[in-house]
Amino acid sequence: MKRHLTECLWLAAAIVLLVAAAPAEARIVCHDGYQQNSGGEVQTPYCQEEYLAQVAREHGMKVSGAQLRASYGLEREACQLSLNDIRVAEFCNPFRPDHGHHCKFFQC
Description:
By secondary structure, the chain is mainly alpha-helical.
């Protein structure tokens, strides 16, 4: 009985060590506004905000994706700065002066 208990304790300790040694990193990987996963790429708000921050930084704004997620006003500012940048046009449509309605050739 004592031998069985000792073997169980050793087995439990080995399992704990294996679980603790396994990497538990589950970070989100984004590429151009899309989240990469095993099935391909999915458009997510998190990755779109990260991409908007990247584009806004290229236009001279000092901002991070986390800051954009925390402040709607900062997100609006980043979109207005990047207004004519096609890379974030779809995401920033609600912040356009015409609210995303492009009415050049027909009456809206």
